[in-house]
């Protein structure tokens, strides 16, 4: 046993209670948050699965959205699904019914300001669902009308803070519709050698920054659009890159860090990229090493979402990736993949979508296994137990207090009854353990019975 000054032990007992209340608020106030065992230790995830047996009509989950009423909406290749936590309501195309969904292959959803649901499809253009009546209004490409939607292969809808609706397509750029001009679209096309146009013919997920600029990823970098002037700026555009889905130059999704203006985290065809839009500089983080020009499938990412509780963590997913947790502080990934021997693992590694709902649950969309969910804040249990044969474990007895200091060291106070108290110091990085206890021959040790 090691010796510890009794003044420290008294301070530890008092401060530990205060710190348990304030540690979260303190960490959020720090601009540079230090990684600790409680903040950055990768959890052991337990996935819950929802699929065909639970009422899904089709087990692909292309994208996921939650509306203002709390309903989850899932875009599948077999219709639009609404989930209330217990059962699904499925909207499908009905032959000869002009008020039904235009196409069963659904790519994305967004909620309109009045509660209607915008729905994009693979070949049926844009739909608007009136939830009160269950009927759809369709917006279809008309080659003779330049104000119609530019393509019926529409990927994602997005409504900005002005109320304008933005629609990305797979092959004909971007469409923008003002709320007072229903059915009349302004088109943003791609011209390869014109840097004032968007970066590719394909347009994927949209985001809006604090200045009202619209960001959209494509097959060759990401574009920023100023809605007031229509000025367009390309980032990560490679004039020599081939524009196709799955290329290293793809930027599919982005997360704009609210605490760092100008910083975007990008899900790309070759890893997670941190882009400084103020300087144009970027850093690339790979889940696995590539072999020359051959991109490791683990590095092809579809989406990136922030952890609901930990600002130091991002979650990514992709068609070969499964789900991976990125620790910003250590710049390291922890991957979670399908394991046939573990029913609580991910159902498959082809992840199409990630979405964090308002409860903090993260939803995972897969290509053939429906949905999976996990709670990143409630599954991280790491057991530290006493082993009488090993003095490098925590002390036995009743644990009355646990405190993590600024260095990431864990302090555990144990009550051994008549034998007194033991304070265990556990260094998470090294695994080393020190114990401090009362020694009647040494006045500098902790007090007996403290």
The value of Rg in angstroms is 26 Å
Task: Return the structural class.
Answer: mainly beta
**Percent range for helical residues?**
under 10%
Shape: elongated
Low-confidence stretches: 1-40
Structure commentary:
The chain is mainly β. It contains two helices and 32 strands. It has helices spanning 6-29, 37-40, and strands at residues 48-50, 63-66, 72-76, 79-83, 88-91, 106-111, 117-121, 126-130, 135-139, 154-159, 165-169, 174-177, 186-188, 206-208, 214-218, 221-225, 232-235, 251-256, 263-268, 271-276, 282-285, 303-306, 313-318, 322-327, 332-336, 351-356, 362-366, 371-374, 398-404, 409-415, 421-427, 433-437. The strands form eight sheets. It has a four-stranded antiparallel beta sheet with strand order 1-28-27-26, with no helix packed on it. A four-stranded antiparallel beta sheet has the order 2-3-4-5, with no helix packed on it. A four-stranded antiparallel beta sheet has the order 6-7-8-9, with no helix packed on it. A hairpin with a 4-residue loop joins strand 7 and strand 8. The protein starts with 5 loop residues before the first helix and ends in a 13-residue tail after the last strand.
Output the keywords.
mainly beta, four-stranded antiparallel β-sheet, 2 helices, disordered N terminus
Strand and helix layout:
Layout (H helix, E strand, L loop, with lengths): L5 H24 L7 H4 L7 E3 L12 E4 L5 E5 L2 E5 L4 E4 L14 E6 L5 E5 L4 E5 L4 E5 L14 E6 L5 E5 L4 E4 L8 E3 L17 E3 L5 E5 L2 E5 L6 E4 L15 E6 L6 E6 L2 E6 L5 E4 L17 E4 L6 E6 L3 E6 L4 E5 L14 E6 L5 E5 L4 E4 L23 E7 L4 E7 L5 E7 L5 E5 L13
Antiparallel strand pairs: 1-28, 2-3, 3-4, 4-5, 6-7, 7-8, 8-9, 10-11, 11-12, 12-13, 14-15, 15-16, 16-17, 18-19, 19-20, 20-21, 22-23, 23-24, 24-25, 26-27, 27-28, 29-30, 30-31, 31-32
């Amino acid at each position: 046993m090691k010796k510890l000054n009794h003044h420290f032990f008294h301070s530890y007992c008092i401060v530990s209670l205060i710190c348990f209340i304030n540690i979260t608020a303190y960490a959020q106030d720090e601009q540079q948050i230090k990684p600790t065992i409680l903040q950055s230790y990768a959890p052991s995830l337990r996935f819950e699965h929802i699929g065909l047996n639970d009422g899904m009509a089709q087990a692909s989950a292309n994208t996921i959205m939650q509306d203002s009423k709390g309903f989850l909406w899932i875009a599948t290749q077999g219709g639009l699904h609404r989930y209330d936590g217990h059962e699904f309501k499925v909207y499908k195309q009905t032959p000869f019914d002009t008020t039904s969904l235009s196409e069963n292959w659904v790519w994305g959803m967004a909620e309109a300001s009045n509660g209607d649901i915008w729905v994009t499809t693979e070949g049926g253009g844009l739909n608007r669902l009136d939830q009160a009546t269950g009927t759809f209004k369709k917006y279809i490409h008309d080659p003779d009308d330049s104000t119609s939607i530019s393509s019926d292969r529409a990927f994602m809808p997005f409504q900005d803070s002005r109320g304008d609706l933005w629609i990305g397509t797979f092959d004909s750029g971007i469409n923008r519709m003002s709320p007072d001009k229903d059915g009349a679209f302004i088109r943003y096309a791609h011209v390869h050698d014109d840097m004032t146009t968007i970066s590719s013919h394909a347009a994927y997920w949209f985001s809006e920054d604090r200045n009202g600029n619209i960001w959209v990823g494509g097959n060759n970098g990401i574009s920023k659009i100023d809605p007031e002037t229509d000025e367009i700026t390309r980032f990560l555009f490679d004039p020599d890159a081939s524009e196709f889905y799955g290329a290293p130059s793809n930027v599919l999704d982005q997360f704009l860090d609210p605490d760092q203006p100008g910083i975007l985290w990008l899900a790309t065809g070759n890893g997670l990229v941190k882009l400084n839009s103020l300087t144009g500089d970027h850093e690339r983080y790979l889940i696995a090493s590539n072999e020359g020009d051959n991109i490791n499938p683990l590095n092809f990412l579809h989406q990136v979402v922030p952890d609901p509780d930990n600002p130091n963590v991002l979650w990514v997913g992709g068609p070969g990736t499964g789900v991976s947790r990125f620790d910003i502080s250590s710049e390291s990934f922890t991957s979670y993949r399908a394991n046939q021997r573990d029913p609580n693992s991910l159902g498959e590694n082809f992840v199409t979508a990630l979405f964090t709902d308002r409860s903090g649950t993260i939803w995972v969309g897969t290509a053939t296994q429906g949905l999976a969910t996990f709670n990143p804040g409630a599954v991280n249990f790491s057991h530290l137990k006493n082993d009488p044969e090993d003095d490098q474990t925590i002390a036995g007895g009743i644990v009355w207090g646990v405190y993590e200091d600024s260095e990431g060291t864990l302090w555990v106070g144990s009550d051994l009854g008549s034998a007194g108290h033991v304070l265990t110091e556990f260094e998470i990085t090294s695994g080393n353990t020190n114990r401090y206890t009362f020694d009647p021959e040494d006045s500098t040790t902790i007090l007996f019975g403290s």
